[in-house]
Amino acid sequence: MNMMKINMVVFLVTLLSTWGRIATAADNGVTPLIDPLQRPAQISAQAQRAVMLAAVHAGDHLVAAGERGIILWSADNGASWTQAVVPVSVTLTALSFPTAEHGWAVGHGGVVLHTKNGGRSWERQLDGRALAQIELDSARRKGDENRIKMAQQLVGHGPDKPLLGVHFWDERRGFAIGAYGLIVGTEDGGASWQSWIDRVDNPRGLHLNALYATRSEVYLAGEQGIILRSSDGAKTFRQISSPYKGSWFVLAGHDGYLLVGGLRGNAFRSPDGGATWEALQASAPVTLTSAVLTKDGKILIGNLAGMLMQISGNGLRLASIPSPIGQPITAMVQAKNGSLLAATFTGLKSLVHSDATGVASGR
């Protein structure tokens, strides 16, 4: 099977959810299945080699998250990492730190975690069971029979829907998105959560894989080419024209441009908030998975083959940059000292700057 044709969400969920079923051996020799939402992440000397799916700034520090509830933090620009105390062992997919101390992580099982100390320890705020009940309560209040039926299915299925993105503007206001159109928001730092499904023009419940937010606008993108925009502080999200009908996994913005990337190397940019699109020629027809805006104003893009690209020339071509990764790049972050790091299936990998290309080699 051609991996480039596999929906990235399904691919990662299938690959990584197996870790969530690893059980702890009981005294009688039986290996019961322990709910990974109830099992704290195991502290391991091998944590730095785990599958990592997210990496962000927390002030001057770096925080990364991935399989089995593993969260790592670094105070030395990624030279060394310390494993955090995490109350769950589900795969974690995304992070957001609006301040150096307060951050949120989301992942499989509909879990939302919060830290008050820069990522060193975490507490659970929400999981898929509570999320499903929140959606059911909201649907009943609205009297929407279709939503009620779907929410009842969510409750019946249990916490099997992953959250795939999270953004907080500050310590109180934020939201999370996920599979099957799931979207929840909070105005009180996660003390309570509300369903935002009725704010989003997504009647088919398509997966929401990526987000990009500024102070004034929010963009969501996902399955079957769906792109949504909010220009009213995330009160409503309306579909905008999409230049491609395959799934998106990358959303980024800089200097007035919006960039989207997805399956088979498809990438486009828009100078006008999605009203018109320009195709970007990728180096290879391989699914795009991540992007980072560097301090010198470049947008670097990673893909499933471990390739790095940046917009060059007239802005309509994604030029390859020499990359030592050789495996899927799932996220990228630039440290305070300018060094670039990539989250991969075997931990965090360092990329070294060069003046000519932006990235020269790794270690």
Automatic annotation (TrEMBL):
Protein name: Photosynthesis system II assembly factor Ycf48/Hcf136-like domain-containing protein
Top-level taxon: Bacteria
Biological-process GO terms, alphabetical: photosynthesis
Keyword match Nuclease: no
Pfam name, any one: PSII_BNR
Keyword match Ligase: no
Leader peptide range in chain numbering: 1-25
Species for this entry: Noviherbaspirillum saxi
Keyword terms: Photosynthesis, Photosystem II, Signal
